[in-house]
Amino acid sequence: MSSDGDDYDVLVFGSCIVDFISYVPRLPKVGETLHGTRFATGNGGKGANQCVAAARLGSRTAFFGKLGDDPWGAAYRTALAAEGVNVEQVDLLPGESTGIAQINVADNGDNQIVIVTGANKRLAPVDAFRRPELFVRARVLVCQLETPIDGTIAAMQSFRGISILNAAPADTNLPRVILSLPSIFCVNETEAALIAGMPSVADVQQAKVATRKLQTMGCKTVIVTLGEKGAVFARALDDNGDGQVYHVKPLKVDKVVDTTVSGLVRYGAALAVRNLVCMLCSFFPLSSNLQGAGDAFIGALAHCLANYPDAKLGNCIAAANRVAAWSVQIPGTQSSFPRADEIELPADLATLQDQWGCV
């Protein structure tokens, strides 16, 4: 897909990970070999996930990322192109492996995860300068914290439009520049608590406190997603913000398919290990209703900001909630993201005004 002469809605600068998932009756002891019951693979990484989510909704997308020069990397690049993503800036690196997550999942939901970041660690500041015209003309940039932070900083510094940082995996010692650079700083409740130094963010009022703390730390517009409780946001005061914090209602769903990127992890077990995994690494989507929905939300938010430039942020978040709610009802991660003809997003997002209000 050529980018010559094209303006892009959404650029994503981030990670690609291939998941290898083995299902076993129980986790093996040290030195023990067990027979598994099932094996599955799937494409992941927050960056690629979010790019695919935006592309499926109809955004013109381009992805900046690194894969190994191996069969897994070649297949992943082909899969991204098949989704309509411009992959000219997705490099297959000789001597590097494609990033992988090796996961064992026991019948009781216990799991073991080994992450090898591979080529992802080679995404560098120079990559943000390779196509300056994209960074000048695109509407929205999406970044995460799964690749080296200096590259992420350079990408946001180079960008002229709306930038979204999904600050995952979270860290307690993020440099102030990474907080202050993005137009929108978006985290879930676990990440918000960790970065803001709070014991927990378990409800709307605690999310309101976290939002204020993050803004005092240097963030501009802040969004804290709360899963089944919706989302909380506050606009930057220098961006026509009114100083208020708003709550966006969740969209109720009839069912939640508790599926990993390519297989099952029981929902209770996923909740039990979520905090630990968020602190270690967020490459592995524990379940579609935890991680995949978050990436669907970010991709949809970027899509709405790019394609509905006059829409209020609350309406864009409400629309993104709809996309995330759809995704939790479909198995898988990228496979769960809806296409534009599968989900009804209103032509005028102002019709979603009743879905949010001041708290």
What's this entry about, in short?
It is built from 11 helices and 14 strands. The protein has helices spanning 46-56, 71-82, 125-128, 132-137, 149-158, 176-180, 189-196, 204-216, 267-280, 288-307, 313-327, and strands at residues 10-13, 17-24, 38-44, 61-68, 86-93, 100-106, 111-116, 140-144, 162-166, 184-188, 221-225, 231-234, 246-248, 356-358. A hairpin with a 5-residue loop joins β11 and β12.
**Tally of separate helices:** 11
For the sheet with most strands, the description reads: 10 strands, mixed
Ends distance: 45 Å
**Averaged pLDDT, please?**
88
> What's the helical proportion of residues?
25-40%
Give the class from helix and strand content and strand pairing. Answer: alpha/beta
Give me the Rg, rounded.
19 Å
- How many β-strand runs? 14
Order of helices and strands: EEEHEHEEEHHEHEHEHHEEEHHHE
DSSP strand content: 15-25%
Description of the molecule:
With 359 residues, the protein is α/β, with parallel strands linked by helices. The chain has eleven helices and 14 strands. It has helices spanning 46-56, 71-82, 125-128, 132-137, 149-158, 176-180, 189-196, 204-216, 267-280, 288-307, 313-327, and strands spanning 10-13, 17-24, 38-44, 61-68, 86-93, 100-106, 111-116, 140-144, 162-166, 184-188, 221-225, 231-234, 246-248, 356-358. The strands form two sheets. It has a ten-stranded mixed sheet with strand order 5-4-1-8-9-10-11-12-13-14, with helices on both faces. Strands 3-2-6-7 form a four-stranded mixed sheet. α5 (149-158) links the parallel β8 (140-144) and β9 (162-166). The longest helix has 20 residues, at 288-307. The radius of gyration is 19 Å and the shape is globular. The protein starts with 9 loop residues before the first strand and ends with a strand.
